[in-house]
Amino acid sequence: MDFNFTQDQLLFRDSARDFLRGEITPERVRALWESGHDESLWGQLTELGLVGITVPEEHGGLGMSEVDFVLLAEECGYVALPAPLVHTALVAAPALVDIGGELAASWLPRIAGGEARVAVGTGPAQPLLVEDADRAQLILLERAGALHALDPADLTLRRNDSMDGSRRLFTVEGADEGADEGAAVADAPAIAAALNRGGLGCAAQALGLAQRMLDLAVAYTAERKQFGKPVGSFQAVKHHMANVAVKLEYARAPVYRASWSLAKDHPDAARHVSHAKLAACEAAALAAKNCIQAHGAMGYTWEVDLHLYMKKAWALAGAWGDTGFHKQRISNALFEDDAPLGAGATF
Amino acid sequence: MNLTFTDSQQAFREEARTWLEANVPEEKLQSFDTEEGFQQHREWEGKLNEGRWGMVTWPEELGGRGCDLIEWLIFEEEYYRAGAPLRVNQNGIFLLGPTLMEYGTEAQKARFLPKMATGEEIWCQGWSEPNAGSDMAAIRSRAERDGDHYVINGQKTWSTRAVWADWCFGMFRTDPESERHRGLTFILVPLDTPGVTVRPIPQLDGLPGFAEIFFDDVRVPVDCCLGGEGEGWSVAMATAGFERGLLLRSPARFQETARRLVELYRGSRELADRDPAVKAAVMQAWMDAEAYGLTTYQTACRMMAGGKIGAEASTNKIFWSELDQSMHATAMSLLGARAELLPHAPDAGDVGGWLDGWLFSQSGPIYAGTNEIQRNIIAERMLGMPR
Asked: Residues 6 or more apart from B259 whose CB is under 8 A from it?
């Protein structure tokens, strides 16, 4: 039993953190919301090896697992990274590894090299919104219980703007004509794995987002004075912040456990992911609620940075399986499938 | 990261399970807040000690097994899984014991630890006073030096299990000029000393689970002082540290409550689902109990790897106490009209235990530092918010 990350994993997280917190300032996030051009950022991420982090070494990546990446995904959340790194590293590349063969051999090296991007669209949501589909050269799309490998040139993409200006969401049309027999490259297990990895990515980012909102509100309430004192010295404000800290403290371990379960193909991995996503998104939702309150009217403005993180947190709550989807999986495990319960049943 | 148990951890679990299955009393003991139940629980402590299962985290030479934190969590899982009795001497074994090992003289260790282990001497705490609750540094009970004795005068309150306990440990002001955290001394007091008066206080369930203790010129030898004179605050803080918290409130207890709650819901789904909030609450209970377990294992692993824990430990107390309260609230809701029945009511069946738990869960957010104080600690010491 060892719940610790290795020194290497922590060092890797630390250096990614230094880069992300140094480079991805709120100003840069705002600029990317405006321009939508993340090419130079993508180049930087590629150079650092982050884009190919989960691509196997024989295909030019670092061959890392979900456990290695989960701490990085958390850091991506902390800075509200306006680029699809979590999608690429946690969903697209592992999906191609699951698919294997020609497709994997031709696309994985190009992902790691930053020459191509791959988008994955799967899950129970209607309409099915595919992240960053317009910048992908390959779309892996769920159709009729199978994953189809599609060329975006054959498809019509329709942009749907998100409240989070860095999320580029598209519905895909024309896939049914293009989705002939030959395009089906994987079936249910790969689809389920992609959805679970997407859920883990949301959960890990939600942890980072919650921490960022908490840090912003703690800093703001130390500066802002009313009645001659920092508002952060008032107990009502302190308890708002403490409640966020408690929720966040107890959301982390479920997320890390889910990363381990996915990496090890644990039979209960789906339930673990659902628990992780629900706990982390709930912590982020409480962070948003209490941190906007702590900012007062300033929190309701576009000018204060809080909204960059708050909106991503709200958006991720419904992505890669919404609350209803994940609660249903927990419900099925607890009430239909007789999941092991009680003391000693955790591991 | 490797979230599986080693072979030796599994073997330890098996050994504990086997012993507990053979030894846990078939009939539930009476509440240790009754005189007879207290005696039954004292005997159970003796039995645990004979099997060397009483103080598994204590060193082997003191009758323990030298267990690390993971083994402790495993033992607790088996203990609660087996439905074994609550620990009547928990203040001794889990709080004073480790503090004695750290601060006690060799003579004190030899005098107190063996009888603590057998249950021969049951300990209670003397912290709170009528005007020193959340503000513990406001302690006023005095201990004046008179030759080789302290003479104690004052009053302690909310001393859990003091009614039938043998000894009390607590903090007293030895420097009459001192204020706040200074000038306090940690003293061990035999409750049969002349001048000690214990007045039971009935709790919500009507039983005298705690008491006031009055001290009138109570003479205690100076070698009952633990740590140095005037060092009481730092000794007491060690007693209240996280590791002790982990020993006292390991997740197994709450995971067993969550299991019983899921089973209660499964057993009456049709009725339960008339209120859609109930199902959501049952699921939340399971997730939170699981999160508490996961987080505790994670923290234990971090500490075993040399990590430290600071003010974030205060999140722990808030989390389990509010979880316990909400799980029991959900159970009360599920039980409907039966919820109010006392355990001995002829038609209570097995629902009476939930009422006991519900009443007890009301104390969680209050004792061991109210949750409001814990939130202040989190805000000021963990998040660095201004005082």
From this structure: A341, A342, A343, A345
With CB atoms and an 8 Å threshold, state whether B1 touches A3: yes
- CB within 8 Å of B293: residues ≥ 6 apart: A346, B251, B252, B254, B255
Q: Catalytic pick from B106, B243, B312, B322?
A: B243
Q: Which residues contact A208 (CB under 8 A, 6 or more apart)?
A: A73, A74, A75, A76, A77, A78, A79
Q: What six digits make up the tokens of B372?
A: 């409001």
What CATH architecture does domain B249-382 belong to?
A: Up-down Bundle (1.20)
Interface of B with A in 301-340 (CB under 8 A): 301-302, 305, 312, 315, 318-319
Has this prediction a pTM greater than 0.90?
A: yes
What residue ranges of chain B are covered by domains with CATH 1.20.140.10?
Answer: 249-382
| Residue in B with minimal Cα distance to A219 | B385
pLDDT tens, residue order, chain A (347 aa) = 999 999 999 999 999 999 999 999 999 999 999 999 999 999 999 999 999 999 999 999 999 999 999 999 999 999 999 999 999 999 999 999 999 999 999 999 999 999 999 999 998 888 999 999 999 999 999 988 899 999 999 999 999 999 999 999 999 988 776 556 568 899 899 999 999 999 999 999 999 999 999 999 999 999 999 999 999 999 999 999 999 999 999 999 999 999 999 999 999 999 999 999 999 999 999 999 999 999 999 999 999 999 999 999 999 999 999 999 999 999 999 998 778 899 999 99
Of A230, A279, A344, the CB nearest to B386: A230
Q: How far is CA B329 from CA B8, B258, B281, B310, B336, in A?
A: 39, 12, 9, 31, 11
Best of A214, A237, A249 to disrupt the B interface (most B CBs within 10 Å) is A249
Q: What is the CATH number of domain B123-231?
A: 2.40.110.10
SS3 annotation, chain B: CECCCCHHHHHHHHHHHHHHHHHCCCCCCCCCCCHHHHHHHHHHHHHHHHCCCCCCCCCHHHCCCCCCHHHHHHHHHHHHHCCCCCCCCHHHHHHHHHHHHHHCCHHHHHHHHHHHHHCCCCEEEECCECCECCCHHHCCCEEEEECCEEEEEEEEEEEECCCCCCEEEEEEECCCCCCCCCCEEEEEEECCCCCEEEEEECCCCCCCCEEEEEEEEEEEEHHHEECCCCEHHHHHHHHCCHHHHHHHCCCHHHHHHHHHHHHHHHHCHHHHCCCHHHHHHHHHHHHHHHHHHHHHHHHHHHHHCCCCCCCCHHHHHHHHHHHHHHHHHHHHHHHHHHHHCCCCCCCCCCCHHHHHHHHHHCCCCCCCCCHHHHHHHHHHHHCCCCC
Task: Name, in order, each residue with C-beta under 8 angstroms of A141's C-beta and a sequence gap of 6 or more.
Answer: A120, A121, A122, A128, A130, A147, A148, A150, A172, A175, A179
Could you tell me where in chain B the CATH 2.40.110.10 domains are found?
Answer: 123-231
Q: Could you give the CA distance from residue A170 to residue A162 in angstroms, rounded to a whole number?
A: 10
CB contact under 8 A, B265 and A335: yes
Mark which residues 170-199 of B lie under 8 Å from A by CB: none
Q: Tell me if chain A has a CB within 8 Å of the CB of B381.
A: no
Chain A interface mutation, best of B4, B79, B265, B383, highest count of A Cβ atoms under 10 Å = B383
CB contact (8 A) between residue B256 and residue A343: yes
Identify the structural domains of chain A with CATH numbers, from first to last: 197-336 (1.20.140.10)
Quick check: is B121 catalytic? no
At B60, which amino acid appears? E
